[in-house]
Specification:
163 residues, mainly alpha
Length: 163
């Protein structure tokens, strides 16, 4: 292995790990162990393909696409989405948020898990504060389509959480 590639990978890993982990947590309904495994799978794929990255998009967009595909593949394998307890992810925030907010956050994850896979991907990327143009590039959709979808998804989630 060449040193420059190792250094490049470490830089990419450090810059993107927490974002990929949060994205995986969104797909797994807060299942920390499964999210760790999926995140590891993502970065193994990044390592294996880093030399062939063609710079046709930003590296973070490329990594998000790998993460989305990895998570969707895992969900397809399972065929059912497990609604796991959200407690693991929320433990570290327990002291900082009220019980009411914690319950709303758990409900939000449950509502997100009920979205179809494409809408789930869009809203999870939006929650990561990715620019909508980058989300459009990742999803292969127009920017206008993403803007409309995000608005509709947020309305749907608001209704779901309030129930």
């Amino acid at each position: 292995m060449k040193k420059p590639l190792e250094h490049q990978f470490k830089t990419v890993y450090d810059a993107n790990y927490s974002r990929v982990m949060r994205l995986c947590l969104g797909y797994t309904n807060g299942d920390t162990m499964l999210s760790n495994d999926l995140t590891q799978d993502v970065f193994i794929k990044v390592w294996e393909n880093l030399e062939s990255f063609r710079n046709q998009s930003s590296i973070s967009t490329w990594i998000y696409r790998i993460a989305v595909n990895t998570c969707l593949l895992e969900l397809r394998k399972k065929r059912t989405i497990r609604l796991t307890a959200q407690g693991n992810q929320l433990e570290k925030f327990k002291d900082d948020i009220s019980n009411d907010n914690e319950a709303k956050l758990k409900q939000l994850y449950v509502c997100i898990s009920q979205l179809n896979s494409e809408n789930r991907t869009i809203i999870l990327l939006e929650l990561e504060e990715l620019p909508q143009k980058e989300i459009a590039e990742i999803m292969g959709l127009s920017h206008d389509t993403i803007r409309v979808r995000i608005h509709r998804i947020k309305s749907e989630l608001t209704k779901c959480v309030k129930k």
